[in-house]
TrEMBL record:
This is Uncharacterized protein.
């Protein structure tokens, strides 16, 4: 009985974590779209190296955030179903 209860609790935790991760991925995609729009506008508005540098920095941060989300997703996927 305890094993079954622990199993159900584990499934609940996995579902909650999966939902939180999906919610964060959705928020990231919205942020990513906004950043890309801003980067495109900056590139158009600056006829100098400044716009390009800002765009490079935005892309760097986007890549870091994307990698972090991917790693969290892999960690969560690997932990699902393990006892």
């Amino acid at each position: 009985m305890l094993k079954t209860e622990v199993g159900f609790k584990s499934i609940d935790i996995i579902k909650e974590d999966t939902y939180a991760l999906q919610k964060n991925i959705g928020a990231f995609h919205e942020l990513q779209t906004s950043l890309r729009d801003i980067a495109a506008e900056l590139e158009k508005s600056f006829e100098s190296k400044t716009g390009s540098k800002i765009n490079e920095e935005l892309k760097k941060y986007e890549k870091q955030i994307n990698n972090n989300i991917f790693n969290e997703h892999v960690h969560l996927a690997n932990s699902c179903g393990k006892k």
